[in-house]
Amino acid sequence: MRGGFGLVGPRRERHVVPATDLDALAVPVGDDGVVIGVDAEGRPAVLGINRPTPYEVTLIGGLWTAQVLALRAAATGARVAVETGRGQVWSGLAQAAGGGQQCVTLHEVGRIPPQGASAGSPVLVIRDCGMRPPRGRVVAGPWQSVLTLLPYLSPTAPRLLQQASLVGVQRVSPDEAEQIGRLMRLPRQAVASLPTLGDGVTLWCTPRDRQFVMTQGTEAETGLLGAARRID
Asked: Which domain of life is it from (predicted)?
């Protein structure tokens, strides 16, 4: 017994790691955010949508992928506001998300109110407004990211791709692939692969970086949304 220090603990050898072995202790943790799938090596691919700076994402792809992103964003504590002209395809998700909490709200095109995003209550705005989405009343800002869903390449796509912080591209036609390749400065190999992508596969890219990601639904997501699909 030592006064004020309690019992002496068991004596064991110290755990010592040589300095040369420290690199082997790397932990496979990516950026903070939403796990959107796995990359070509099977590692988790993470999309950091809750940011203190404006963040705009354009997804040329299917409704299924956008809805999976909405569910996973809500699971991280973000509020999701969906601006859409087809509320019937979002209503089931809005009712199921949050376990009774209203974390996913639906709004008609052009009628989405200010969301009051903050560090403690980040917001993801999903704009599902068809091929020619009007300019949004609610734009990206601190702790408020905006994802615009385009089913196909449209006349408004070049503007949206140029102003986006991140672009996602799912299976498109060869002509669309060529246009996207020029806009995003994609290598020929990536352009050639776009018309052959499987359901659930997305090329996420910026003018400098690119990564193919496979998104697979969890059991709960598949039960609610069905299997991954490109065409709605």
From this structure: Bacteria
What is the Cα–Cα distance from 81 to 125, expressed in whole angstroms? Answer: 5
The model's pTM is 0.84
Beta bridge partners of 128: 84
What are the two backbone dihedrals, phi and then psi, of residue 42, each rounded to the nearest 5 degrees? 80, 10
* CA dihedral sign of residues 126, 148, 218, 33: negative
In the numeric block, which tokens belong to residue 220? 């709960």
Phi, psi dihedrals of residue 230, rounded to the nearest 5°: -90, -40
Q: Which two three-digit tokens encode residue 122?
A: 């980040």
Q: Rounded to 5 degrees, what angle do the CA atoms 207, 212, 213 make?
A: 125
